[in-house]
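User: My advisor, Dr. K., asked me to get a structural model of this assembly before our group meeting. I'm new to this, so sorry if the format is off. These are the inputs:
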Amino acid sequence: MLRLFANARYDFIKWRRWAYGLTALIIVPGFVLLLARGLNYSIEFTGGTEVQITTHDRAIDAARLRAALDAGGLHGAEIASFGSDTSFMIRARLGETNSGTQQVVDSTVGAVRRALDAGVGADRYKVQKYEGIGGKVGKELQGKAFLAIFLSFFVTLAYLAIRFEWRFGLAAVLATAHDILTTIAFIRYLNLEVSLVVVGAVLTMVGYSLNDTIIIFDRVRENLRKFRRQNLYDILNLSINETLPRSILTHGTTMATTLALVFLGGEVIRPFALVMTFAIFTGTFSSIYIAAPILMYIEKRWPGEDARGARVYTSPIGPAPAAPAAPAVPAVPVAASGAPRTTPRTKPSPAR
Amino acid sequence: MKTIRNRMITIGVLFVIAVLNILPRSTPIRMVNPKTGQMEDTTERMVPITLGLDLRGGVHLDLEVDQSQGPVPDCKDAIDRSQKIVRTRLNEFGTLEPVVQTNGNCRLSVELPGESDPERAKRIVQQQAHLEFRITDMKNLLRDALPGIDKALKDAGVRGAGAAAPANAVTQLFGADSAKNKKKNAKAAPDTGNTVGAFSSVLFQGQLPGEYLVPLEQTALVDSLRRLPAFQAAMPRGISLFWGTETVARGARSYRPLYAVESKPIITGEELEKATARRDQVNNHSVVVFDLSRRGGRIFAEETGKHVHDYMAIILDTLVQGQPPIINDQIGAHGQIDLQNKPLADAQDLALVLRAGALPVRLAIVDEQSIGPTLGADSIHDGVLAGAVGVVLVILIMVIYYRFSGLLAVSALALYVLFTLAGLAGFGFTLTLPGLAGLALSVGIAVDANVLIFERIREELQHGKSVRLAIDEGFKHAMSAIVDSNVSTALTAFILYLVGTGPVQGFAITLIVGIAASMVTAIFVVRTFYLIWLQRRPDMTTVSI
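Assistant: The format is fine. Below is the predicted structure of the whole assembly, which you can bring to the meeting.
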């Protein structure tokens, strides 16, 4: 039978500092960029008008459309090609002062049409879709999106606290917070438009990443009961290694579907699919390199009954992290295929 | 084995329910017959999965009670009454399944699937359709009050707009006017002609008593004057001002008529019982012919009888329609509104909104979306293609990696898709484009439960357990991870549903239904497959996994 990463014995926890560095390398420049330039919010959040048109003539390009819009008094409208060279998205945002009133929503859509009718010709393009949103609604939606993220945090924390223990819950939520940060950085790097659907993708990512963390923590919980004398460092490594084939396979299948959506799902769904694809990366990464080490750190700071050895392995006074990692490798109690697992019980724990 | 039989029966029942849920069924619908233009009841066979506007095209409007002219005290009540009226209007509008929902306290959401003319939809929904008949200011009360109004404005610190309309403009226009008409307009010259009153200087006597003309560029000024408390206090009692619809050209300049009419309408649209559009045989104008109720007819006849030879303004949504006609004789329960040269379709729409009744408040559009039907079809095509490719990839991965067990999981996946669609149809949820993406995504996530179980079985086999025991233990031990991870995903999806709107809710719903279906198929159905397999090959020592 085909088995990938079976009986792996990688020392994942050893690399946690590298992982922190790598993740900081993604998040920090992303957020610097974010502060400098902000996010590209869709009109759902800012209010404004978005008109998607297809032209019947390839000669009509973005420059021509812009000229037509400028002539119609719509300066500063954004024009983006949308999937093909005859398909365009025109976006005119409303000013802060008069946003929210019906006249503005109406007149902007009308103004775009009139400008295009005059500058391009009414019979040479077709409006496929348009959307006009008042600024007030946008503000409400923005508030709702933040509320959703906050609520989902709270609810999952509560659920994990009930099902596991608060330390596990906190570690899982922190890992998820990390995922949200990297995903926002990712969105900023690609300058993806932040629409409601993209916020939906971020929230789905929250669920997916938690899902992944929970699978590993579930195994940690089980192994903690099974190997009473093993220290936490080894148990975390063991659990990650044991669940590795599952991680690879599930992420493989999910990635297959999100990549299919990226390449074939069409322009509307692409930002969503891109965010989901990245989310699978970061969710997997954080479950292994963020959630598990953070759990260890939490057990060290506020030791619970599972904090075996956590103190020794992460204490700055203690041996360097790499040193105990080396003997820890053979301690990972995955024996050869088919052999009963007995070694961990006899192995003395360095922590005691 | 008894358990297998019970399991098979359960799966069979679920299967039958699911298939029944998504079988095409006959739905009675009411729509406009394109040939006759009449509303007809027909039935159509269709798969009972509601597609969102982003997939089938259509118009979406969010309207809010317009409070810009002043606060509306009982928003909730106003929006509830508006909902009923808008629904009545849209039932005759000609689209399939219009949806009218209140959304919070002061908001109304309207969805018109398949509608491709957003402008018309907006007119129908938004038009207040407040119809009134009022007698014009026959006694020239406004004209007599003009000096008083000017003085009040002056006292309030409003300077005469002398620069914009020099004093001699008055005489100019009057000259042109009297040349055209035999009416004695000179009489109308206000006493303040020399001193330039803020209001009277932009006002010119029209052809009828109570009709005044305002230069087009001064209409905004007049509106701002009318809002001043000093102006309102100085207005003659029992007289109100309304703009007309048409612009009037006099020489090189355009004017907008302003009508002074009696404040008390002789009758309102509430008494209207029937309204139909037609083309006037004589002048080919589009007209709306209406009948009043018996009570309304009696009042109307009585009032018009008192006002023979007076002019009557027909006011629709605070605008005087055309030039007020003269009342030649008592008018009964039957009347008409002349729309001049507007298309007949406009008259039909006006008749429709008049029939449905007036909205109690003004509604402002805060969100509007219009999606062309071809775009929706493209989206479906792309979404289905991507979903299909994704599913094929998942099938390949599963079958190659887990061989026969993978095949079992994949056949359960077919049931999973069926159950999910049935769930969406059964609960009447709407499938949107993000929902389609969620469906594709949930296929990837759905196999996760099977992956967890299979990996667990492999581990148990590795520990030297027998096939039967390994399968039992595999299912048992994987369960906590499956439940915890699915519940947490479902919780986030549920929050997404609570807080999200439209397409995002569609996505959340698809995800939740998908998670529920995947729990049933991955755990229950696959387990049953294994049991059957084990029963047929009791001596099995290795398992294809």
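One thing worth pointing out at the meeting: The first helix of chain A runs from residue 16 to 37.

User: Perfect, thanks a lot.
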